[in-house]
Amino acid sequence: MDEHIKDSELVELYLSRNELAVEQTEKLYGKRLKGLAKSFLSDMRDVEECVNDTYLKAWNSIPPQKPDDLFSYLARLCRCTAYNIIDKQQTSKRSAQLVELTHEMEECIPDNSRSASQDDKFISALINEFLNTLSCDKCDMFVKRYWYGESVEQIAKEMGFTKSKVKTTLHRTRDKLRKFLEKKGVQP
């Protein structure tokens, strides 16, 4: 099979239940998914487990799902899997990285343990709407921090900013997000 397979072709492999789908997914996205899992998990065995579970979840969920952006779909599965691994390992003591990210966002977004699935979709749509109002740099910074779980130091290095600028920008962006959500009727 061609090494430069497109997302749509890869999704079709999943839909037709062709086992090459997982193999091609690993070739195309394995390195990126491992990098994402490493941002949450410190043990390489956990990273491998997380990525393998991501492939299994993709296999089991496509169909009925038919993602337009396969990597984003896989990244969401990978993040959720990493969180589940952390929960399993440390029920009473969460990862410091996860606690920090949760603490930063709790002033903007309601506790998801109390929200229903429909509320989650509504808030997700609002966050996407908010992200579309941001400049490219601010949006990239926000997504790197809160979607990919990158550290402030890592973001500063990648984007060529100081840590202070990244922290300040993220703080102001969270504040804008909170105000935006409040205007839309969502209370933290």
Question: What keyword list fits this structure?
Answer:
188 residues, Arc Repressor Mutant, subunit A
Notes on the protein architecture:
The chain is an all-alpha fold. It folds into two domains: 7-91, Orthogonal Bundle (Rna Polymerase Sigma Factor, Chain: A); 98-183, Winged helix-like DNA-binding domain superfamily/Winged helix DNA-binding domain (Arc Repressor Mutant, subunit A, Orthogonal Bundle), CATH 1.10.10. The chain has nine helices and no strands. Helix 1 packs across helix 2 and helix 2 crosses helix 4 (70-89).
What share of the residues lie within helices? 55-70%
Fraction of residues in β-strands: under 5%
- What's the number of domains? 2
> What integer value in Å does the Rg equal?
18 Å
Low-confidence stretches: 112-117
The count of DSSP E runs of length 2 or more, i.e. the number of strands, is: 0
Find the structural class using helix and strand composition: mainly alpha
Q: What number is the mean pLDDT?
A: 82
Give me the strand/helix succession: HHHHHHHHH
Q: What summary fits the major beta sheet? A: none
Q: Which fold name is given in CATH as the topology of the largest domain?
A: Arc Repressor Mutant, subunit A
Overall outline: globular
Distance between the termini: 49 Å
Please name the CATH architecture of the largest domain: Orthogonal Bundle
Helix count, DSSP H or I runs of 4 or more residues: 9
Under CATH at level 1, the class of the largest domain stands as Mainly Alpha
